[in-house]
Structures are given as C-alpha cells and as structure tokens.
C-alpha cells in the first residue's frame, strides 16, 4: 500500500485534528524505527498512520473495522499489527512490526501531551521530564503506563532511549505538528 492510499483511508474515517496528529506522529516514529532497524519504512509508516483510523467513526468496533478493511486488501501484516496494538486485546506479538507499533503508540501520544503543556513545546524536551510525568497518574490519565513499559520491553529498548528517539524524531517535524516553541511576548 502506498502512503497516499493510506492517507485516503485515514481521512475517510478520521476528521478530528487531535487524532489526525496522533496518526501522523505515530507514522513518523514508526518510519524512523523502520529505518533504524532496517525494515520497510512504507509498511511501518502506513501501519502507524492507520492504527487508530477507525477509532473516531467506530469507537466500539475499534480496531476491527480498519483491520477488516486491510485484510480485504491483503495487507495482513498491517492488519495483524493493528489488531495487536493494545495488549489487553490478547493478540500475540509475532513480528517486530507488531512489537514496534505497541511500543510507539501510547508513548508517542504521551510525549506529545508533555510537549503541549510547555511553552517551548518539543524544543528542549528531555526524556527525564517525560519519565517524571509518567509517574504523575493525573497527567494524561488516559495513557496506559503499563502499555508504555510493555512496549519498550517487547521492542527490547531502554525506555529512556526510546523516549529520546521519539522526541528527536518529532522535533524534526515540530512545525508541521504544531509543536514548535510558542513565540515569546516582547
């Protein structure tokens, strides 16, 4: 599947700015990991882009709608990874792609949440600040901290290094993601 087709699918289901940004951030991190791990950046990026595609339109059927669509298009590797991107669903992690998507989803959203409460946004954000916020249960309370830890474990990466990699990946796209430093008042 080409990125343009994945984008069309995403936009056919998802309209909300926040969820579209989440899809894009996970896509960016997945592409970066694919390059780092000598995997297929197109496959990994599109998997990140589409992992929550049906969430807004079909929240009670998520991720079954997008998984079924991908299976109909013979995109089984993507479909399986998306069906496994939350450990409580009980789907096994068979491939590096499956593990990477779990490892990148929740924590990427959490890094974005951390950036959004800072005037400097992503600029100067460090893993230690993100880790400190992870310990604060009231901050971004919907983020499942166990998923963050399990994902890093399954991907076999140190959580601090993982968060640093995500921050650096997103910093390169801060303007596009509307996560660049806010202008200071003169």
From TrEMBL:
Leader sequence residues: none
Residue intervals of the HD domain: 20-90
A Pfam family recorded for this sequence: HD
Superkingdom, taxonomy of origin: Bacteria
Cited InterPro entries: HD_domain
PANTHER family cross-referenced by the UniProt entry: METAL DEPENDENT PHOSPHOHYDROLASE, METAL-DEPENDENT PHOSPHOHYDROLASE
Protein name per Swiss-Prot or TrEMBL: HD domain-containing protein
Organism of origin: Nibribacter ruber
Highest classification ranks of the organism: Bacteria, Pseudomonadati, Bacteroidota, Cytophagia, Cytophagales
